[in-house]
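Review the following:
>
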Amino acid sequence: MSEIPTTVAEAYLNTVSRVPDHEAVVSADGQRFTYQQLNVEVERLALALHALDCRPGDRVAVWLSNSPEWVIAEYAAALLGVVIVPLNARFRADEAADILTRGRAKVLITQPNFLSNDYLERLAEIAGGDLGQGEQAAIPTLPDLQSIVLVSGDAVPGTVSMPTVLERARASGLTLDFPALAAARQPQDPVLVFYTSGSTGRPKGAVIPHDCIGNVHNWTTLAAGINGNDRILTSFPVFYIAGNFWCVLAAMVHGATLVMSAEFDGPSIVRMCVQEKVTVLSGIPTMLKEIVHDPAFDPAAFESVRVGFFGGATMPYQDIVTLIDRIGYDHLLQAYGMTETQGLSISTRIDDPREIQLTTCGRPLPGFDLKLVEPESGEEVIGPGIGEAWFKGRTHLHYEGLSEEELKRFYSDDGYFLTGDVLKRREDGRYEFVTRIKDLIKVGGENVAAAEIERVLKDHPDVFNVQVVGVYDDRRGEIPAAFVELAPNAAPLTLEALRNWSGERMAPFKIPRKLKILQGDEWPRTQSAKIARFQLEALLDD
């Protein structure tokens, strides 16, 4: 596919028309859909949503695990001009209520439960009792919510089952002109509202336009070389932009096959790779690292894998080499991006030399105007140098619920989005991620990048995972605190031992002055499974 699509709806119908008999989706429980079969379900749901009074600009929240129903809802909404509001499958009542309220959801598509999370129980907590009368949702704290549609199980008061709404739409004789609906969608129409991961605070709703599909096309085509023969595993949840754009939409835009994993542990990923001959495998660095260091690791499980990418956290050079060697990647691409820049904005490419893929996050993708700005002086960095990354071009429309005045703090006067991330521009025009500005620790007047300390500590033989944050200190202003997960079978680690080891490798003001040892399940996580750095300091009091 060479022509760049301008809307998700256009790209979807083009693919259905072009490869109707190609396998589109394989679910974790073995369901299989060709693109034509998928489209039958998409049109059925679009009719049902229309019958539920969903019109262009209305919001439909999706609270589901990774499943075909998630994909069907996304494409049905895109055709109708309805905006999808994803909810984290692990949300509890307060978190779900916050997003449903701020996202102004008119319809909620959900399931009774996922693993130990009982969604009906969470909704009852929000409602303070019954969810409504008959099939009409009536939750006082969610005045916009009219319908709760259950994709499985029996309806309870205040909900309606998916089979019921589908059958009613069919029996009504309602028809829609889907090509005309798709043609009515405009590139800047909103299609999704992703609530950002909140690694430094409360999540914000970034409103994403339909033309995000052009960025998906550009990265998959120009950087990753994805084509219709690929089988792409959702090794991320699809309520998160990495799983949605670089798995769901990446497969659709090329007519490739989406292989859906509902869980995100090592055994689930390995099983799907073996069963479905996955060719595109990405993931959060810590997850990939756990897979290859598992004593039961079998490289034969990944013999079909050829390409993947990672972002969202830094990895030491040797860890990247280990992943490539053990999984057998032809290409493991480093990338940089965020929800507000349509997922990925800088990436290495499959035609880059291996050394470039290992040591940089590449060059900006088409449609992005990037400049670096010195954080303290505000002066633009010309040529090689280090500064905060400012982007213009493919950035989100706005944050949900913020006024124009409030939005100004996220943009420069000349319209650049301020990422808060510090990048380094090299002589060859490629970029390296350095740190977040808020991760700069000012120790006695010296600026120290938390990522710099982390890179050193990751080389400690007993350290499996580490995060460093600045904490208040009466004398120095801030001091570095290290939060460490020990490697399997590691000896106990004390602050004194870590400081002695670090003293040979870092200037004294960079050495951690506090240490907290955490187990793997004790890391606080954001809704996108990243470590919630802003919650770490509170653990020092535990």
User: Anything to note?
Assistant: The CA atoms of residues 268 and 372 lie 41 Å apart.
